[in-house]
Amino acid sequence: MGTRPARWGIHAPNLPPPMLLADARPFPNASRHALDTADAPHPGRCPLHAAGELGCGEPPWNPLHRHPEAAGQSRYLAPEDGELVPILGTAPATAQERAIHARFQSKVQEPGFPCVAARSVFNRGTYRFGAYGRLGSSRAALALCHDLYEFAHEWPVGQPAFASLIAAFPAPLVADESAFEHLLWQQLQLMHDIDRQFFGWDRAVSRDPAHPQFSFSIGARAFFVVGLNPCASRHARRTEASLLVFNLHDQFEALRASGKFEPMQQAIRQRDLAYQGSLNPMLDDFGRQSETRQYSGRAVPHDWRCPFQFRYPAAPTGEP
Fold first, then answer.
1. What is the pLDDT of residues 1-21, one digit of tens each?
2. What's the total number of domains in the chain?
3. SS3 per residue for the chain
């Protein structure tokens, strides 16, 4: 592969050396290891994770798995018997993580909460959760990229269960929706600047944030990102700590192909109208306008421009 040129402008320090990156590869359409969800303690979890065997002698599919800061800051927690448990050998859930998780779970499980997909994720336990420190920080970007690589491997393309990764950020205390929006895009930009060294953009979606078919890509997998914060004007987006919820884009496509997406979408909009008293002006069908307008939850003006910038080169994968 050779040494990465200095012009790549890395924001996060101490990334793995080229000899480790040479083994990194995009995620396949099926998990690298066969999954038996009937026997696995968590739906979709690699059995070798459950057994504590992360390497297995094969080339690493998580290019940050040997990075001391990224792996050391990993907060990949799974729900089990009402508790949050680490499944990658990381430290147990902190009191702060348990408190943020409990409050958010309580909100989502309110009878009138609009997002039926979120309710399903909590009811089924098909989510991962962690607190990543400061929103908009390089340290959070490293740890979150690490954990999203794990998440994308755990839920490969075609996995039937709808799943989300919920990232909490206890700091800073945002002053208003605009401040949260700024930090959200700063966080996603930092993550992209790390990810582009290992993976290309998901070819199923656009990498132009103004394009109607844009979705954020990490690990060559597209994600729809939902931001929640204490200052949100929409009741459903208002939480005690800032949160970023990463939903795999291909899950929505699977719902659309099965004819289940439109009924779910209509149910969410009707419930949101009852919950808020008004329809969310930012909601739109995928492909009509860029979904970036929905990420922060703020009602952005018509002439708003997304601050995210796709940067070249995308990754050492031969893509342009």
1. 333 222 222 233 344 443 333
2. 1
3. CCCCCHHHCCCCCCCCCHHHHCCCCCCCCCCCCCCCCCCCCCCCCCHHHHCCCCCCCCCCCCCCCCCHHHHHCCCCEEEECCEEEECCCCCCCCHHHHHHHHHHHHHHCCCCCCCHHHHHHHHHCCEEEEECCECCCHHHHHHHHHHHHHHHHHCCCCCCCCCEEEEEECECCCCCHHHHHHHHHHHHHHHHHHHCCCCCCCCCCECCCCCCCECEEECCEEEEEEEEECCCCCHHHECCCEEEEEEEHHHHHHHHHCCCHHHHHHHHHHHHHHHHCCCCCCCCCECCECCHHHHCCCCCCCCCCCCCCCCCCCCCCCCC
In a domain, 175, yes or no: yes
pLDDT digits (tens, 9 = 90+) for 141-191: 999 999 999 999 998 887 767 899 999 999 999 999 999 999 999 999 999
Residue 55 has pLDDT above 60, yes or no: no
Average pLDDT, rounded, for the chain: 81
Residue 1 placed within a domain: no
Q: What is the pTM of this model?
A: 0.81
Q: Is residue 143 part of a domain?
A: yes
Query: Which pLDDT score is estimated for 309?
Result: 97
What is the extent of the structural domain holding 164? 66-295
**Does residue 216 belong to any structural domain of this protein?**
yes
